[in-house]
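Researcher: Structure for this, please.
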Amino acid sequence: MRIAQIAPLYEAVPPKLYGGTERVVSFLTEELVALGHDVTLFASGDSVTRAELDPVWPHALRLDPFIRDQLVPNLLMLEAVRRRADEFDVMHFHMDYLPFSLFSRQQTPFLTTLHGRLDLPELKPMFTAFPEVPLVSISDNQRRPMPDANYVATVYHGLPAGLLTPVDGIKPRYLAFLGRIAPEKGPDAAIRIARACGIPLKIAAKVDMADRSYFETVIRPMLADGGVEMVGEISDARKPGFLSGAIALLMPIAWPEPFGLVMIEAMACGTPVIAFNRGSVPEIIDDGVTGIIVENESAAIAAVSRLGRLSRKRVRAGFAARFTATRMAQDYLAVYRKIASGAGAHHSALMEAAD
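Model: Predicted structure, token format:
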């Protein structure tokens, strides 16, 4: 198939450091190429891919100190995709609702994977205005705020099977927090859990400008009491060692997590996850096998003592069975074929009606 992948411009594909959506786009794009498909990636010019790269903007927006209006580059990219639309069998957007209006007015089949939260009330009018846009959710739980939208599939994220693997010879000695410093991610809860257990905590996370005040007023004062190491953002190359050295990944989230890529990153390294029962967590974690699902901090503290019952080999096997990039690409190919065949039938019906 001739497939266009359209990524947000906020991060490169793959990201240099943190970045969930762009990382998934990279994994999907490379796997589709490996499966023999003709893929064009619309992304920032500092992206790296075996697909054809259409570099709509020279650099990822987060790393561009001169950009002030981030909407302009993304709108320019949408126009660039529209001008090439007839070159593709299907166009796959990862920009939430931004393509809805423009691409509903042309004939090439397209779909949008929703990577973010859907429980914001201002989103509903947009989905109501474009009820026929094909949507892919990244968990079934993600759909709950808008159950009547035009979902064509749920496709869980996946990682290349060999990207993150357990590192032999490392004895797990600490608890880990990975991702982003933000109130909804619960790093303050992770610190309290680790301290209550008397186990060191390592935090590998970025701090966005939007969360700088939270970091300075809540997290930084907590660091003064010791026992917590701020590692900062880490690349994929450093994750196997970081996660393999962890007794568990803590995920004390306080929001409806749409997917939670860090959970399967930990599982890929054989590291169990202790996660709060929010959002996608029950769909991703096999409770008592690949991790322990808890309701609150007290339960998380108690769960740490039960981690010895979990086999790290079974954690890795749980990842391999459900969350590889190959499985993700095959799931998306089934969606592409469904969308393309449906669009073709719809176009033929319109032509017959015109005759």
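Researcher: Any notable elements?
Model: The chain is about 35% helix and 20% strand. Confidence is low (pLDDT under 50) at residues 344-355.
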